[in-house]
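DM from R.C. (forwarded with permission)

"hey, sorry to bug you on a friday — could you get me a structure for this? deadline for the figure draft is monday and I only need the backbone to look sensible"
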Amino acid sequence: MVIDFSTFGSGAAPTPTDPRLLFDALPERAAQYEFLRDPQGQVLQAWYDRRSEKDLVVKLNTGGGKTLVGLLICQSSLNESVGPALYLAPDPYLASQATEQALELGLEVTADPRSTRFASGDAICVLSLHRFVNGKSVFGLQGDGRPITDVGTIVVDDAHAALATVREKFTLSLSRARHTDAYSALLQLFADDLRQQSEITYLGLTTQDPTAVAQVPFWSWTRHIGDVVAILNGLRDDEILQWSWPLVKDVLPICRAVFTGEGLEVQAPCPPISKIASFARARRRVHLTATLADDSILVTDFAAEPATVGAPITPASAGYLGDRLILAPQDINPSVTDVSVREMAAKLAERVNVVVLVPSHRRAAVWGRYAQITAADSEEIGSAVKELRSKHVGMVVLVNKYDGIDLPRRACEVLVLDGLPLAYGGLTRREAIVVGDSDAMVNRQLQRIEQGMGRGVRSVNDHCVVLLMGPHLSQLIASPRYRSRFSPATLAQIEFSRKIAAHLAGQPLEQVEGVIAQVLGRDPGWVSAARTALAEVTYPESTVSKIAAPARRAFDQAAIGQYSQAVTHMSEAVAAATDPAERGFLQEQLAAYQNFTDEAKAQHILVKALMNNPEVLRPIDGVKATRIKATDTQAVLAAEYLAETYGDRNELLVGIDVLLDELAYHPNPKRVPVFERALERLGYHLGFKAQRPERTTGNGPDALWAIGELKYLVLEAKSGATADKIWRSSVEQLAHSMNWFHQTYDQTCAATPVLLHRVNALEKNAVAPPGTRIVTENTMKKLGEALRKATLALADAESWSDPKAVAAQFSTHGLLAQGLIERFSIKPLSF
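My reply, with the result:
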């Protein structure tokens, strides 16, 4: 073979580094990529101008083409010799989608991180985050002796969704069933301190009560850390724990540990992401995300630079989005039932593809008779999506999949969100209990809902009708507090949809179905009005909470044993908190850091934390019960509470629906804490002073109502009970709570013992305290209906802040304290 060496002299023109020019130069891209959308071109130009900054956030509407942008950023970086380039997707399904898109663009990609083509910067490595972040990562871990894979550019797609995966990977989870001996040894190790926090919760742990959730007090965790290490180190060869133990072991002393009836979870306050050295050392890190304004979690969890996160790259307009009609049928007409909405969706599925997103298999089951396909795991969902994109399928139900699937054009013309995503793990359940209504938790929930609503609108040419089911989802668009936090485009579509809903108020579901038909039929008036609603929408300035950076700095200092500096930074985070519940939670973490240098001061901080949030850990000396009593008449207290809580008629009605939904008797044990919290709120709605002594002091009833004239209701909740009889243990717990009451309150006070249970039949060995009343499932429904009717009348008259009007409606519907418990409860039945 003879080589003409003269051809090597000049060579071709340099490969473009400008991503827009790079796109134009791709010779083998598929026909559908004829040109870049204008927003894609804008963000690529802005990224190119700022590409030397290490942490950049690129925001595009859900469906705005983030994957293509991320792939071009990777290739541009390779062309500029800032490689190797790694594209990370939240899960394997999304990684396969990104790979498919890269191949359609004509880009060389690999799924093998050991590939020489990746190492040499010739191919983009596309992986799921699961393969990158784990204790056995092929990229190597900081300090484990293995070589660290050099990565120049990392693009994290759907960064907010990826964060959930990162937290999961940095969590050490022991299963009670699999790691029985270790779980038992650890539970015994912390038994005394757990019992001091709550005797009842500890008993639940020992009896495998699925509702029990208990965090190990930080002082107990650090005191016994040597024993913990010995027990866990004995499991270092466990096949499952090998994926998490290497990521957690170096920061074990500052971790939070939460027991449940099923297992133990151990997690650091922030993911020690520097353990994944390839990520920490990357010269460029680009976070692709949707459009919620608060990106603080990128700072706390990915250790991203606050300054650049707070200056995201966005297109000039946020209105580049397909049209959506977003309706909550049960908000339009409270008489609309879940069954009728399902039947309407099934009827629509005869003509168009309908996708239903549900949070659980239990919720999926109620759709079973209507659905052509129900999919839960990655493979099933991938198959279902392919069918939807290729033909008319009908109705497809997807379980707990709110992000990362593309259903453009006719793949999904009607999208139903049935219920909020649930918190399943011990740590997330404990956090939901402690700061469930804080801004941070609400933003996290809204992020998933917005991602879910974006599945059916992937470009400006798409259209979709979104139906929200359940009072909690209705509340998101009814309450200004919540809906204002959606992205600008989604918010504009919600506000426009609310105008349409106002015209439909009180109308039967057939009228709603008629409007849906207009949208699906592409009525010219609808198309014009929907696009006009988005015409002037722009991206807001991004915000990074003032809490995020100091909280992350505090963790980083604590991780290397610099506890005094950690206290300084965490104090700054506490000072920045405005929400009392969140401030208390942060003070609990501050106390945990302080405990390493001054144990007495740590306990003092914890006392302050309790003043802001009664759900945090209790100090070693415990918490004395605070007596409550009615400070005014029932009507005055109820009117004050309703006026403070609800700003308008719609908020009031939806808020009551949410409350009553939370007060439903449900066999799912994860809902029991929600029920107990709602029971306290029900007391306030009725005009009583209320508290949760067992939660705040570790002793006493689930709820206590002061109903006036020194009379009280001692309430024990068994809302998750499934048996047809009331077990002895339940009435013994009620008796214990009555003893607590008599020890806490003097003889001038009188209390009625009340058990909330689906039935009123006692087992033969159960003896209820004298005077016991049972709020059964049926009587709770009657109470709920009475409250709903009274509230509707007050809402129609716009008089819920008027004590006289409240008193009149409460009297009409039997909600006044006198005789209340007799009307809405029954006596226990003994055999």
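R.C.: lifesaver. The CA atoms of residues 115 and 125 lie 9 Å apart.
me: no worries. The longest strand covers residues 463-469.
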